[in-house]
Write a structure and sequence with these properties.
Layout (H helix, E strand, L loop, with lengths): L4 E2 L12 H10 L5 H21 L6 E2 L7 H8 L17 H9 L9 E3 L6 E3 L14 H13 L4 E5 L1 H6 L9 H21 L4 E5 L9 H17 L4 E5 L8 H5 L5 E5 L4 H11 L6 E7 L9 H12 L7 E5 L18 H4 L5 H12 L5 H15 L9 H5 L9 H12 L16 H11 L5 H22 L16 H4 L3 E4 L6 E4 L2 E3 L3 E7 L6 H9 L7 E4 L1 H6 L2 E2 L5 H21 L4 E5 L14 H16 L7 E6 L8 H6 L4 E4 L7 H8 L5 E5 L11 H14 L5 E4 L9 H21 L7
Parallel strand pairs: 1-10, 2-5, 5-6, 6-7, 7-8, 8-9, 9-10, 14-16, 15-17, 17-18, 18-19, 19-20, 20-21
Antiparallel strand pairs: 3-4, 11-14, 12-13
This protein binds glutamine (GLN) and zinc ion (ZN).
Glutamine (GLN) binds next to loops.
């Protein structure tokens, strides 16, 4: 083969030990001057570039680095600062304004933040509207010059494309799309012209929306737009990058007037390959072959990737092919090198950002790397054939039923007889404030500084304190408070078989907030009871029912890095089987109200709507496996914290939970309206107050919320609870808010709902 080229699409910002986060938070806390922050950031940025150069990457992205979020950077570059942050008609935008948009100030609420496609990264939503866009500074140009001057690196500037940028923005009506595009295009032209003048060769323009779904109209706009951008800087080669899915209209997209097209050959691989074979690839273009998965943490099977490259080379010659990750490496941790505690068999099968870059260069220089490829095959085989994999699953699953013997309407009667709750029963979502004391004690225990017995006593004291508080407040269904939990997924992962935990496997979630997802690498299986002891203890303190509290299989799956040798659905079923054993263990211990949280169910939805149903079907099935092995009188609760409920209400009903609690306040009543048309005929609690702020809503406000809900939902099925868990709140405000909530419920019971649940 002729020599291929290698490229990267974006590098993680965090640094090996989250130096980026520490610098930012130091600055926000006033420990670091702006100048020191700038210096620290520059050092990090350059070290990332140097690393990519040392790895031998030919096309190194510049300008992908950010102080918070790259979409926010683009908005600020175009002067799109909402007026509540002050009027900025000329000059550049200060760092203070930039952070104010991201984080809010006491006078101006932060810009909205939302999920970046189907990843766990969140971007700041640009607000288009009254402010005229202008070019405040040319960030990609600055990044290009810095790399060149400081390191002699001929970087590839990265930009978010105009179509994606506008599609992700808000503040205008759909029919105004073109008007706003017209305003932005001259700014894009200017950015590109200046890059051309500075001598840049390639510019990467990210258009992930081209992988989702695009209309006829979009395509004609995109064609015209890229024609203009191409004409504006004819010496510059534009590399149009799609990712996260197959290109939506392959033939038209690959023929756009640009010099290179990047395609995802991991997610949507089948479709992209088929389209490539059917439509061919234009002879005047370079193909960015995204063959190394930019979103998972596993080594690539290099033999398989080699075969894929050969397949591609039948259509596009090597001199016009670039080997690259399927998307930016923003979504994976930095390096496995610091992971000294992992079992070797696992570590050798992992690839974070740096290891992925190595894979890319191995694949580029295939002929010289037979040894590396052999080692790769052996490492992957070692894990595949290890004792951790391939035993459990099916035999365990086969005995489980996926539906409860009686339908809800019949269970309901039996449950009402058993539980004898008042009308509009009150409860909470599970966690109580994780005070500093709680966190310190847990940490001490983890580090071995606190003997187990003392730690247990501490947790028991917390449970005693909070069972008493809940009784005093007058809640009807109590919880143990989750004081022993660090995180709702990690807690279970540490107790189940098949999970591993990295030391530095952090990924940016939003701003400086990072997550360290557990790694599911073996068969997931139940080991020993995980929550029985605490729940039973809490129950022993009271005559009121205490709800058991578990995290559901879909959430555990969606918040972990999942092994890729099995379909996600099979892994989910394994988790479900393990959780169902815990559900049974709770029931056997006399805990007969059990909540199985699924806050991440919605996050797993595929990008393309036509794929939704398949996902929802297996997700619902897994939840039902986990919760259907119980007695008719056992009441299964679930909780979800999102308010876009309308478009998946059938699936939520299919979960067949006896009671669901769901967040409401952030949807400002929209969710309640949805129930005017949608039917929900099982127990349901709509959060009656927002737990994201320390504010204590007065009784009247909560009553209003409840009354509004009762106009569309039957009072006989309605529960009263806060929006979500209370772990981030402080004690006094929590107690006060819950008191108000119970008062609101009581007052409404007296006036509005004379009939008691029997
Ligand atoms: N039971 C969990 C809690 O209260 C639920 C958390 C969540 O919905 N994310 O903390
Ligand atoms: Zn929640």
């Amino acid at each position: 083969m002729e020599r291929l080229k290698s490229s990267n699409l974006g590098y993680p910002r965090l640094g090996e030990k989250r130096e980026w986060k520490k610098a930012l938070e130091g600055f926000w806390a006033g420990r670091l001057e702006e100048e020191e922050l700038q210096k620290e950031m520059k050092q990090l940025r350059l070290s990332f570039l140097k690393k990519q150069k040392e790895k031998g990457i030919d096309m190194i992205p510049v300008g992908d680095f950010s102080y918070y979020d790259h979409i926010l950077d683009t908005a600020v570059m175009f002067g799109l600062v909402p007026e509540r942050f002050g009027v900025h008609k000329e000059g550049s935008i200060s760092l203070d304004t930039y952070f104010a948009m991201a984080r809010g100030t006491k006078d101006a609420p932060a810009c909205e933040m939302t999920k970046w496609f189907n990843t766990n990264y969140h971007y700041i939503v640009p607000e288009i509207g009254r402010v005229e866009p202008r070019l405040t500074e040319n960030y990609p140009l600055q990044a290009y010059k810095e790399a060149k001057n400081e390191l002699g690196i001929e970087g590839k500037p990265v930009l978010i494309g105009p179509l994606t940028f506008l599609k992700l923005s808000k503040g205008f009506a759909p029919e105004e799309f073109e008007v706003h595009l017209e305003k932005l295009l001259p700014l894009y032209e200017q950015v590109l012209k200046e890059l051309e003048e500075a001598g840049a060769e390639w510019v990467q323009i990210d258009e992930p929306v081209l992988s989702v779904s695009i209309t006829e109209k979009d395509i004609s706009m995109v064609k015209a737009a890229y024609q203009r951008l191409n004409d504006a800087a004819p010496q510059l080669s534009l590399f149009l990058q799609t990712y996260f899915e197959a290109a939506a209209r392959f033939d038209e997209i690959t023929r756009l007037p640009v010099a290179g097209i990047g395609l995802d050959f991991v997610h949507g691989a089948e479709q992209n390959i088929k389209a490539l074979q059917e439509c061919g690839f234009p002879e005047d273009k370079v193909l960015g072959a995204g063959i190394v998965d930019g979103r998972n943490i596993w080594r690539s099977d290099l033999k398989q990737k080699r075969a894929l490259l050969t397949l591609i080379s039948n259509i596009v010659p090597p001199e016009r092919t670039v080997v690259q990750p399927s998307c930016s490496l923003l979504h994976v941790p930095v390096t496995t090198e610091l992971e000294t505690e992992l079992p070797a068999i696992l570590k050798d099968a992992l690839a974070f950002a740096d290891e992925k870059l190595t894979e890319i260069t191995i694949l580029r220089d295939l002929d010289h790397n037979t040894e590396a490829i052999e080692k790769n095959t052996n490492d992957l085989q070692a894990l595949a054939q290890s004792d951790e994999r391939g035993r459990a699953s099916n035999s365990e699953l086969s005995g489980l039923r996926s539906r409860r013997p009686l339908p809800f309407q019949e269970r309901r009667v039996l449950q009402e007889q058993k539980w004898k709750l008042p009308a509009l029963p009150t409860t909470t979502i599970g966690s109580f404030p994780q005070t500093k004391e709680v966190r310190v004690q847990r940490q001490k225990f983890r580090k071995g500084e606190l003997p187990e017995q003392e730690y247990r006593t501490f947790i028991e004291e917390k449970m005693k304190e909070w069972v008493a508080i809940q009784e005093e407040i007058g809640l009807d269904v109590l919880v143990h408070g989750e004081f022993e939990r660090n995180d709702m997924v990690e807690f279970f992962g540490q107790k189940l078989k098949g999970f591993a935990f990295t030391a530095f496997g952090w990924v940016q979630s939003y701003g400086s907030r990072c997550v360290k997802p557990p790694v599911i690498y073996g068969d997931v299986a139940f080991d020993k009871p995980m929550t029985v002891e605490e729940t039973r203890f809490a129950q022993s303190l009271t005559d009121k029912p205490v709800k058991g509290m578990l995290t559901g299989p879909v959430t555990i799956l969606n918040w972990s890095f999942v092994r890729d040798d099995l379909p996600a659905k099979d892994v989910c079923n394994q988790i479900a089987a393990a959780i169902s054993t815990e559900v049974k263990a709770l029931e056997d211990a006399g805990i007969e109200m059990i909540q199985v949280d699924e806050p991440a169910l919605r996050e797993g939805l595929p990008l393309k709507k036509e794929d939704w149903q398949d996902y929802l079907d297996w997700a619902v099935h897994a939840f039902r496996l986990a919760t259907s092995q119980v007695k008719d009188t056992t009441q299964i609760h679930t909780h979800m914290c999102y308010s876009e409920f309308q478009d998946m209400i059938e699936s939520i009903r299919a979960l067949d939970a006896d009671v669901i609690s769901i967040e409401t306040s952030r949807s400002h009543g929209e969710l309640i309206e949805a129930f005017e048309t949608a039917v929900y005929d099982k127990g349901i609690g709509l959060g009656v107050y927002d737990i994201h702020s320390p504010r204590v809503p007065p009784v009247g406000e909560m009553k209003e919320m409840i009354e509004r809900a009762l106009q569309v939902l039957p009072s006989s099925l309605f529960w009263i609870n806060p929006d979500c868990g209370l772990k981030t709140r402080k004690d006094p405000e929590t107690i006060e808010a819950l008191k108000n909530m119970v008062t609101a419920a009581k007052e409404i019971r007296e006036t509005k709902v004379p009939v008691q649940q029997t």
